[in-house]
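To the wet lab folks,

You asked to see what we're planning to order before we commit. Fair enough. Below is the target structure as tokens, and below that is the sequence we designed to fit it. If anything looks off to you, flag it before the synthesis order goes out.
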């Protein structure tokens, strides 16, 4: 699943007329970088949730055939449901097996084919060194398990493998992902993997501009 429903307030005015996953890095929309990487990893079915300017995303990406994918859309046209609610809303399209989730407004060289999930884990997150704009991080990682306390602190990359069981007991509507992750941590069922390669949260106009100024060899193929 690629998360693409957000409004992108901090990227205004760019996102006033364009959904943020369609903002370009070196002439290619952010979400297309993800789709191409997913194809390289062997993924053939992708769910994309859409809300703000969703029609533009549907028009640009179509049914996914141009990328070698089958794209299915999870509609949030009545209002974006946040990450937790958005994933829960898409569960009927995602099936009963573990699934990969990727934030559509990140840029990274994570090898999606290298990601897995332990038999006892409800989810496994990709964690990265803290960027300048988020110096205190989100979690710690110890012996492959994510913890709320400890050092060093790391930042959730917006990439993870999830089991549908993580969302057991949830109800339709808008809700965040964090409380579900905290419950999994308390049960010692949230795994993690550190990534030290390229990763950018393209959350502001300045960060998008900086990404576009990187030399070509700093971008993933």
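Sequence we intend to order:
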């Amino acid at each position: 699943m690629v998360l693409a429903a957000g409004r992108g307030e901090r990227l205004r005015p760019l996102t006033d007329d364009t959904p943020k996953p369609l903002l370009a890095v070196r002439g290619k929309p952010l979400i297309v970088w993800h789709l191409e990487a997913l194809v390289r990893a062997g993924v053939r079915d992708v769910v994309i949730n859409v809300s703000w300017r969703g029609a533009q995303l549907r028009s640009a990406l179509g049914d996914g055939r141009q990328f070698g994918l089958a794209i299915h859309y999870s509609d949030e046209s009545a209002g974006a449901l946040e990450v937790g609610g958005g994933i829960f809303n898409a569960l009927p399209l995602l099936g009963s097996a573990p699934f990969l989730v990727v934030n559509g407004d990140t840029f990274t060289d994570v090898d999606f084919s290298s990601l897995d999930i332990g038999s006892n884990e409800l989810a496994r997150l990709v964690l990265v060194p803290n960027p300048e704009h988020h110096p205190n991080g989100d979690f710690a990682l110890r012996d492959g398990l994510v913890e709320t306390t400890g050092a060093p602190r790391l930042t959730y990359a917006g990439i993870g493998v999830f089991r549908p069981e993580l969302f057991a007991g949830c109800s339709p509507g808008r809700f965040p992902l964090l409380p579900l992750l905290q419950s999994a941590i308390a049960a010692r069922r949230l795994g993690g993997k550190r990534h030290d390669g390229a990763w950018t949260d393209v959350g502001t106009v300045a960060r998008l501009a900086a990404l576009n100024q990187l030399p070509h060899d700093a971008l993933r193929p």
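Structural context that might help your review: The first strand starts at residue 2 and ends at 3. The domain at 2-207 is CATH 3.90.550.10 (Spore Coat Polysaccharide Biosynthesis Protein SpsA; Chain A).

Thanks,
Computational group
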